[in-house]
Request: fold
Amino acid sequence: MSTKNFDVVVIGGGPGGYIAAIRAAQLGFNAACIDEWKNEKGGPAPGGTCTNVGCIPSKALLQSSEHFEHANHHFAEHGITADNVQIDVAKMIGRKATVVKQNNDGILYLFKKNKVSFFHGRGSFVAAKDGSYEIKVAGASEETLTAKHVIIATGSNARQLPGAEFDEALILSNDGALRIPATPKKLGVIGSGVIGLEMGSVWRRLGAEVTILEAMPAFLGAADESVAKEAAKVFKKQGLDIQLGVKIASVTKGKDSVTIAYADAKGAEQSLVVDKLIVSIGRVPNTVGLNPEAVGLKLDERGAIVVDDECKTNLPNVWAVGDVVRGPMLAHKAEEEGVAVAERIAGQHGHVNFGTIPWVIYTSPEIAWVGKTEQQLKAEGVAYKAGQFPFMANGRARALGDTTGFVKMLADAKTDEILGVHIIGPFASELVSEAVVAMEFKASAEDIARICHAHPSLSEATKEAALAVDKRTLNF
Ligand code: FAD
Ligand code: NAI
Reply:
């Protein structure tokens, strides 16, 4: 076993880690990235949760299932006949695996291009000595690395429901939920958060009867209330059975089924039998195998690495980013932190604006927002104006045949500065970028209202929402 010296070692090759390593290398550091994720053949599969069992594969399945839904239910209105439409689930999962591999390979290519040394294995702290850190790599690569700066980006794992351990056959985490071999007749989901809604949508479109059991009495509590209300209405119409305010009593596995005993919102005892159960009740920070004790790295009571606003840990020159630290568990948040940390190591002023991190839920219609919700502004006592424009009144949405939802803009009552934009509708994930840019530049609603937007485009709904703030929509 040899010892290799680096300026910066990144532990974890998800969106936080691999991006941090690339940025560090771009800034002239001798950088390494350690990642332990294995593909089916045991080879390296960098990209973390996001690439392997998160953002990318879920969006691949959402796309496939949406095509299926369109072919079955929406082609006819365009005059297209598609009888006897079939779904080959194995082929769909195979395509998803190909998309994942393209992304894994892309990251390995980027490491080479940027001269980042990649080590495939588990990285753990051994000791801190002489102003640097010793890190052991165990796995396909067996090495000892030393580095002055360490960036930890070890991500998160699905939270287990006590008494319902994941077996990925009947009780599924996000991992198993993305590779169910055949459409289950009945699918249960515990948790109506982002994963529950996205995965529930995939399997519902493919023909499963989906029941989602949610503990909270309110649906999508983090979203703007009017968006959450519209979403609940649409999802119900689509056939997702979302039950709020439930209390799970027990989860029992049979040979080919799972029985969930629960109390409904009125306290009545209920029982649900399903072929598969997805448990999506949040995620927990992951430091398994990192050996933080060896160097005295501080974790909080949730197991997250304690960091300050700049992602500095309690140890000199040790940083942590992404899901393993406080803040939203989003790939783009992890990436922004990774870039900012690499730049701080280089003496620059890396910055992450938590107030303009966009949120997206890739259901149909998509849901996306940035900034404050109306209920947050009310709670904070901020005087605001609201403008809303429905996609029903947008020409492009009508041409697409997708007129569900609206764009809602919230602006400061006095200064007109945009404080939040909330979208439910087609391509909300793309539309939200304009709002992010606007908020980063501290734009007013009037700024957006005065900007020329292409016609016909969905983005005109954003312009009209901005006009609506001043009560002067042109097309509604
Ligand atoms: P991770 O992506 O979890 O990467 C951590 C990496 O570190 C892993 O490869 C792990 O194997 C490795 N590792 C851990 N410990 C060690 C060690 N000791 N040594 C070596 N390697 C180690 N976010 C979005 O923004 N948009 C989405 O659409 C989206 N969809 C999602 C869908 C699902 C189903 C799930 C589960 C998540 C989704 N997310 C999405 C969240 C997103 O995946 C995470 O926020 C993101 O992956 C966090 O990045 P990270 O780099 O912090 O950690
Ligand atoms: P989540 O935090 O989005 O939702 C979890 C839900 O489970 C909540 O509504 C919560 O009230 C509920 N819950 C918790 N305990 C429960 C219990 N015992 N019984 C019933 N319900 C319970 O978490 P989720 O969906 O697991 O996703 C994890 C994270 O992954 C998200 O927070 C998000 O950051 C990320 N993600 C992002 C996506 C995106 O950006 N499009 C897609 C998927 C995941």
Notes: The pocket of flavin-adenine dinucleotide (ligand 1) is lined by residues 11-17, 34-37, 48-50, 54-55, 58, 122-124, 153-156, 174, 195, 286, 289-290, 322-324, 329-332, 334, 362 (CB under 6 Å). The chain has three domains: 3-158+284-352, 171-281, 356-469. The mean pLDDT is 97.
